[in-house]
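Handout, tutorial session.
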Amino acid sequence: MERTGDEAGLTPEASWRTIQATMEDARSSMYVAGTATILLLWGVIVSLGYLAEFALDTVASDLREDSPWVSAPLWAILVIAGMAGSAIIGSRAGKRQASGDAVRSAGIRVFFFWLAVAVAAFLIPAAAGLWSADADGVDIARAAIGIVALGHVLFGIMSRPLIAAVGVGIGAAFYVPSYLAGDAALAIAAAATLLVVAVAYASIRKSGVL
């Protein structure tokens, strides 16, 4: 005799909740496709930016004095490279999970979210007058990194808590050395940021949730 859903211990309501949970998990996975590799990419990019700023303040201080605006194109190049790399990684990862309009729509939304974060990290310091010739590069970085860290936290709240934790780690990796490490702050921040994203990358790969 065939057993009904209730006799088997799975009611129609429970079955529907299971289906919804499975669909929600699949939808969430589309929005975080390739996240582990993207986080690693941005960790490297941000660390390169820190090291470049450190070099400008130490071994290339003459260039900094002659061209105080040099940080703007430097970070612009890094951000553009990061966005292009993220788009490629996310697109390929999404296509491995599924295909069709849903994946394409998710990829576009994620791209525009991070595009908004990147633009805000540039425009908000500019609106505050931090891109002037007399501005301190550290103040610009403090504002920009705060926006980037907040972007990770907000994205993580809506998708995966681990991404929010990475945002907190990225912020701490920069702010703690910037207030406590003096002239070596940017070099230490570069190493700390790489450590944060390396730990996140390993955790994500081990758990297999992204």
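The second record follows below. Compare its token runs with those of the first.
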Amino acid sequence: MERRDFIKVLGTAGATAAATFGCRDPKTSRVDDISSGEIPPEAMTYRIDPHTNDKISLLGFGCMRFPLRPVKSNVTPEEKIDQEAVDAMVDYAIAHGVNYFDTSPRYCEGASEQSIGKSLAKHPRDKIFIATKMSNMSPDMHGRDASIAMYHRSMDYLQTDYFDYYLIHAVGDRETYQKRFLDNGILDFLLAEKEAGRIRNLGWSFHGEKEFFDWMLDCGVTWDFIQIQLNYLDWQHATGRNVNAEYLYGEMEKRGIPAIVMEPLLGGRLARTNHKARAILKQKEPEKSVASWAFRFAGSLPNVLTVLSGMTFIEHVRDNLLTYAPLVPLNEDEYKLIDQTVESLLSLEFQGTSCTDCKYCMPCSYGLDIPGVFLHYNRCLNEGNFPADAQDENYRKARRAFLIGYDRSVPKLRQANRCTGCRECVPECPQRIDIPEEMRKIDSFVENLRKEGSF
């Protein structure tokens, strides 16, 4: 889609994700960049589902990154979640118009559905839309009985007898799709559940190959929606296994399939950009968070039904509400600023791993905090606070910040040097990161910094 066509389409339409701590102490900073202003009452922007006429809040509550309590490591995933904080965030979000909640049997190490089920049980069922997934990624879940048991367990945990939106979770290639949904008859089971009314909308979330995406669109199943990774960097500059969001969105728009957006902040990285990119956006809107630009970009697309935000603190909910209550779509001049921001990110080697902190790799059998290691490394790299060149005048300061921040963000017994290379985590990663290899590289980098002596 050319820019002039993109702007024309937008003309018809008429926050942040979970806090990720890198080069600063997480104990002293929960949320360091939120928008200011008052949230107008009853100002939420809604989109109409073309298949059901449901009125869906443009801000969707992603249930992947719930707040955790300071507990010992030997407690259950359910005990780790700060349920009171979840309840408060959900109540606040619903009071301000949010009605779409997205979870999965895999989120929060398997505890997300139970937690959000408790929070939503206090609210009228017909006023909210619940989305969950068939997350049968592990080989031991490929069997028909195990997958169907997962489906019914989701109903129990979410305290419901139907799903508003149900997803085939994280598919990206024909071989694994065949095993997870065709050979075992699970796709037929889900279609029958939709026919019976227990699934109101059936779709899938995509992580994978362009050829597979095209095949799924034309495989003979009528999909009600698709969940895609979409943000202003991945729009034309997707890396790794990801496909440019411009292509995905365009193909869905042609077919009238609404898009549900995941990773609008690219795992939080577009909320914590380098200083040059941040300055571009702050100069234009000093009172708005850097994250709000990413949410406005995703929300400005008219075929987007809802934009998911994995919110950890009440401040995140408030920041996102300020963006979507109501949404002010980006104009052409603001798209030029987004272009400048992308150029800045690319010119400063916005890179690292493509980890989005989904935590599907967790828990690690050997105790590693895999996403924690990646988040610290990515944040320091992408903020430009990275000790890359010993000849740089700021090298000693950056080196000190990186190492101190690493030890504060990730306990020593959970750092990259503890990786055994067992590779149990690799098939669990939807981004298809070679986690042991990346851990080896990061550990080598850290050890070289530490060998250079005291601070």
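Points raised in discussion: The CA atoms of residues 97 and 362 lie 33 Å apart.
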